[in-house]
Each structure stands twice: as C-alpha cells, then as structure tokens.
Amino acid sequence: MSDAFETVTIPLLQQRKRDGKKSIGVVAWDFPTTKFADRAGVDFIVVGDSVGANLWGHSTMLEVTLDEILLCCKAVRRATDRMLVSCDMPYGPLQEGLSSAMKAAVRIIKEGGADMIKVDAAANFPEVVRAMTQAGIPVFAQFGLTPQTALKYGIPYSAQSSSAALATAAAAAKLVEEGLMLEEAGAVALDFTNSGPVAGEAVVKAVKIPCIGGFGGGPWLDGRVRLAQTVLGYGEKWVGSKTDTYFNTAQGTIDAFKALVADARAGKQIKG
Fold first, then answer.
1. Are 84 and 107 in contact (CB under 8 A)?
2. CB neighbours (10 Å) of residue 249?
3. Do residues 146 and 124 make contact, with C-beta atoms less than 8 angstroms apart?
4. Which CATH number fits domain 10-232: 3.50.50.60, 3.90.960.10, 3.20.20.60, 3.30.870.10?
5. Under 8 Å CB-to-CB from 138, ≥6 apart: which residues?
C-alpha cells in the first residue's frame, strides 16, 4: 500500500464527479502490475476478461471462465487495499439467467474480494443490475458501442467508425436513456465504451453517478480506464510501433533478452 495517496471508495469516486475531478483506472490482472499502479496513485483496478486475448492467447474474451477471472481477481486484491477493485463478470453467467448471474456475483465478491462487479452490456440486463444492487453488490455498468451491441443500434462496428456513429442526436438520446436506466437500477458508476464527445458529454450531464470510459473515451468523461499493457507498450504489436504511449516495454524486453543470450553465449556472467 502507498501512504502517499488516499484510500479510494465508491462514495469518493461519486464525490469526485460532483467536484468535477477526474478518476483513473487501469485494467490489470496480476500482483506486480497492481502494485505499480497503487504506488503511482491510480484510483481503481479493473480485472478485465480481456486477460484472455491479451495475456493467454485466446482468440476472444468469451473463452475466459469464472474460475479464471477469480484467479486474477484474487491476485489483484492481494496487491492493494487502497485502490478499488472492479472485476468483470465473464461471458456465461449473465447469458444463463438471473440465478446464475447472482451466484457468480457472490463468488466474485466473496472469493475474489472485488469491491464492485463490471457487468458488460448492462443495458441488456437491467434486472441483473437491480438484483445485485438489492443484494448489496455494487455494479460498474458497462454500456455503449461494442461488437455485441452494435447491431442494436444498426451500426456496423469498427474502431474507426464508432465515435462518428455515436455523434448523431438519436444515438446520444438513446444512450442517455440507457445511462439513466442503469443509474435508476442502482449502478454505482458507468463504463461507457466508445462514448465519443457527443454522446459522452450528454450522458455525463444526464447522470449523477461517475461516467468513466476506456476505449473511445476522452476528457469529456468523468474519468478514464486504460489497459495496463497499452500504458506500458507491452505486447507484440508494440515492437517497432510508432504509436504514442507512455512507455515501450516490448522493445526493451526484446533488447534485454538479446543481451542475456549474448552474455551467456559469450561465457560472461549474466546480470541480476
């Protein structure tokens, strides 16, 4: 735990919105990354089902199981008692029905130690958000334009077209309606995916709870979430990449391994 930063709570995040202050979260799945984020003053960690595609080589996030996400959540929880921990409910329990979703939610809170649960495509499951809230389980409700929800809006999904697609008044009005519905159902915060400045600003003004966004978000929101691997430039796609990020761990890692191989083959004492 870092003594330099205040302990973050859900009421604190909500107060920051009222005060016009931004909150920042990082998507992480392991103990050391969480420790680094804690020491840097990050407010909350999202244990995302993106672990499947980004760390384990799955073709989609849909392959991640509840037991696997719990393993990650426990590791993150052990690393911090200052930051809030949000854990994704993986694909499956929600789709199986309310009873299955509630059982999974209890496990995530009880076994994983999460402070809140991120429910993906939550606007499609308001009854789940309401039931969790009534059971005392805080919900971080994700909504907006995703591959799963694009058809609902009649929009062909692509990263390039998402912000433009949500720039219409009709799309913004629909998303304001969904944001208000999720707030009424009891969500403690919203995770607005691909908000864009038009719909994003409209929802932020309409709801009283924090509206925080990752991909496709921006300064018009109450806060941001960023994948730790993107912040750190960690992943094969960052090798030789010219995209601006905060660090390029990928290239540095390859260079370190090359130096290790060279030293060992030259009969030198290896470092560390």
1. no
2. 17
3. no
4. 3.20.20.60
5. 10, 115, 116, 117, 132, 188
- Annotated domain spans of the chain: 10-232, 236-272
* CA angle at 49 for the pair 134 and 30, rounded to the nearest 5°: 105
Q: How far apart are CA 109 and CA 239, in angstroms?
A: 37
Beta pairing, strands 84-88 & 116-119: parallel
Four-residue CA torsion sign, 34, 35, 40, 43: positive
89-123 tens-digit pLDDT: 999 999 999 999 999 999 999 999 999 999 999 99
The model's pTM is 0.90
Query: Could you report the per-residue pLDDT of 46-71, keeping only the tens digit for each?
Result: 999 999 999 999 988 889 999 999 99
Residue 93 tokens read as: 């329990």
